[in-house]
C-alpha cells in the first residue's frame, strides 16, 4: 500500500476561478466570474502566428525568450516608463504572469523567509509563498477603500522580511497604487535587502485618466524588484499564456535558473508574432478607454438594481456590495446568482485566507457589451421575480 506523501499544499482546493467557470458552463450562465474577454482578439495578430507557423518557426527559441521580442519589450518599457532595461540581462519571456510570479518567488525564497502580502490577494500569491517553505505575513487592505496601510506594513517588517508583493491595478478590488504609495514603499525597502514583487499585469487596463505607477519608473529599485506582465491582458488573449518578467541583473540570473528547468522556452510562433505586432500596434494604449466604457455599463446596470459599487480604477473587475439585496454570505449569494439568475461572479471572500465576508461580489466586465447587457437583464428579471 502506497504511503502517500504529505501534501505540499494542504487545504488547497481547485481555484475559485475554475470552480465558478465550471459551474457557469454547467448552469449555462453568463460568466462574469473568471477574468477573460469573450470578444475577438486582433485578427492580424492571429494571422502573424499562423504566418510564422507556416514559415517553420516551430522549434525552441532562446530559453530567455526570443531576442527580438525581448528587444521590443525593452523598447516598450523605455518609451512608456523611461526605463532603461536590457533585453539581454533584465527580461525573460514566460508562459503568463502567474508563472512569472511563481518563478520569481521560487527563485529567491528560503524556508522561514517572511513575505508581506496584502489581502484581498490574487489567489496564487500565498500558495506560491508556502510551497517554498516561506511564511506569508498577511496585511489587510483598508476597507472599503482597499488601500495599503503603510504604518501597518512598517510594524510588520522584521529581520526575516524577504519580500513585499504589490499589485496595481489590483485584482480583485480595482484600486490602483498612487505616487504616495510608491514613496512609502521606497522608504521601507531602500537600503534594505527586502525585495519587491510587483504584479502589473493590468498596466494598461486603467481608467479615469489615471497614470499607471509602474515600478519600472524607479530604476533605483530595479536591482531588488521583479515586475511581472501579461500579453494575454495586453492583446485580449488570456489563453495564450504568455507574459514576461523584468528584474535587475542579479535577480534575473536566479529567475532564469528556475525557469530553465520548468518551462525552459515559451511558445515560439507566438513570440515571433508578438515581436512584430508590438512594434506596429499600439492599441493597448486605448485598452483603458475601451474597458472603462464596459465598467460603466456594468456599474450603471447593477447600481439600478440595488447593488452598491466600490470604485474600480483599473483591472477587469468591479466589486459590488449587495447588502440591500440579500443577507446571505458572499459564497451563498454568488452560488444563488449562478444557479437561479444565470450570472456567475466571484465571492470576495475567496481572496482572503480566512474567508472574511464583506457582502461583496467581484464581477468581470471585460466582456462584449451584449454580454454585459444580457447579464444585467437576467439579474433584473431574477430580482423582479423574487
Ligand atoms: N486572473 C484571472 C482572474 O482573476 C483568472 C486567472 C486564473 O483563472 N488563474 O479572474
Number of helices: 13
Radius of gyration: 21 Å
Q: Describe the largest sheet.
A: 7 strands, mixed
Instruction: Give the overall silhouette.
Output: globular
Overall structural class, as computed from helix and strand content, comes to: alpha/beta
Biggest β-sheet: strands ordered side by side in the sheet? 2-8-7-6-5-3-4
Low-confidence stretches: none
Percent strand: 15-25%
Helical coverage, percent range: 25-40%
- Report, as a whole number of angstroms, the end-to-end distance: 54 Å
Strands, helices and their partners?
Layout: H1 16-27, E1 30-31, H2 43-54, H3 67-81, E2 91-94, H4 97-108, E3 114-119, H5 125-130, E4 135-140, H6 150-155, E5 161-167, H7 179-189, E6 195-199, E7 225-230, H8 231-234, E8 243-247, H9 249-260, H10 268-280, H11 287-304, E9 308-310, E10 317-321, H12 330-341, E11 343-344, E12 346-347, E13 360-364, H13 369-385
Parallel strand pairs: 1-11, 3-4, 3-5, 5-6, 6-7
Antiparallel strand pairs: 2-8, 7-8, 9-10, 10-13, 12-13
Helix pairs in contact: 2-10, 3-10, 4-9, 11-13
The site of glutamine has 6 residues, from loops.
Overview of this protein structure:
By secondary structure, this protein is α/β, with parallel strands linked by helices. The chain has 13 helices and 13 strands. The strands form three sheets. A seven-stranded mixed sheet has the order 2-8-7-6-5-3-4, with helices on both faces. A four-stranded antiparallel sheet has the order 9-10-13-12. Helix 3 packs parallel to helix 10 and helix 11 runs parallel beside helix 13. The mean pLDDT is 97. Bound molecules: glutamine (GLN). The site of glutamine has 6 residues, from loops.
Amino acid at each position: 500500500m502506497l504511503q502517500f506523501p504529505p501534501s505540499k499544499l494542504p487545504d488547497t482546493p481547485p481555484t475559485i476561478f475554475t470552480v465558478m467557470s465550471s459551474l457557469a458552463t454547467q448552469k449555462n450562465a453568463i460568466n462574469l466570474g473568471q477574468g477573460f474577454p469573450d470578444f475577438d482578439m486582433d485578427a492580424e495578430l492571429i494571422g502573424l502566428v499562423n504566418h510564422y507557423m507556416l514559415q517553420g518557426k516551430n522549434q525552441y527559441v532562446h530559453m530567455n525568450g526570443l531576442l527580438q521580442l525581448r528587444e521590443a519589450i525593452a523598447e516598450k518599457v523605455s518609451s512608456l516608463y523611461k526605463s532603461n532595461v536590457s533585453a539581454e540581462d533584465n527580461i525573460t519571456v514566460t508562459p503568463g504572469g502567474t508563472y512569472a510570479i511563481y518563478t520569481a518567488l521560487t527563485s529567491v525564497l528560503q524556508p522561514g523567509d517572511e513575505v508581506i502580502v496584502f489581502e484581498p490577494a490574487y489567489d496564487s500569491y500565498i500558495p506560491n509563498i508556502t510551497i517554498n517553505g516561506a511564511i506569508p505575513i498577511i496585511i489587510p487592505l483598508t476597507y472599503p477603500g482597499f488601500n495599503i496601510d503603510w504604518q501597518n506594513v512598517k510594524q510588520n517588517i522584521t529581520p526575516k522580511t524577504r519580500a513585499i508583493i504589490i499589485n496595481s491595478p489590483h485584482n480583485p478590488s480595482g484600486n490602483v497604487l498612487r505616487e504616495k504609495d510608491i514613496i512609502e514603499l521606497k522608504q521601507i525597502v531602500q537600503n534594505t535587502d527586502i525585495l519587491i514583487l510587483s504584479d502589473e499585469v493590468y498596466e494598461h487596463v486603467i481608467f479615469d485618466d489615471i497614470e499607471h505607477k509602474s515600478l519600472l519608473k524607479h530604476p533605483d529599485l530595479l536591482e531588488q524588484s521583479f515586475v511581472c506582465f501579461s500579453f494575454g491582458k495586453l492583446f485580449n488573449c488570456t489563453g495564450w499564456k504568455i507574459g514576461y518578467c523584468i528584474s535587475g541583473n542579479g535577480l534575473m540570473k536566479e529567475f532564469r535558473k528556475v525557469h530553465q528547468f520548468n518551462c525552459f522556452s515559451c511558445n515560439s510562433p507566438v513570440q515571433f508574432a508578438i515581436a512584430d505586432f508590438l512594434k506596429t500596434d499600439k492599441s493597448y494604449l486605448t485598452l483603458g478607454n475601451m474597458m472603462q466604457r464596459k465598467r460603466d455599463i456594468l456599474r450603471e446596470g447593477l447600481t439600478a438594481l440595488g447593488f452598491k459599487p466600490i470604485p474600480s480604477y483599473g483591472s477587469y473587475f468591479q466589486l459590488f456590495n449587495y447588502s440591500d439585496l440579500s443577507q446571505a454570505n458572499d459564497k451563498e449569494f454568488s452560488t444563488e446568482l449562478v444557479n437561479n439568475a444565470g450570472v456567475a461572479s466571484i465571492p470576495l471572500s475567496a481572496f482572503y485566507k480566512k474567508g472574511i465576508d464583506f457582502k461583496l461580489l467581484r464581477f468581470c466586465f471585460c466582456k462584449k457589451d451584449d454580454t454585459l447587457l444580457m447579464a444585467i437583464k437576467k439579474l433584473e428579471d431574477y430580482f423582479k421575480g423574487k
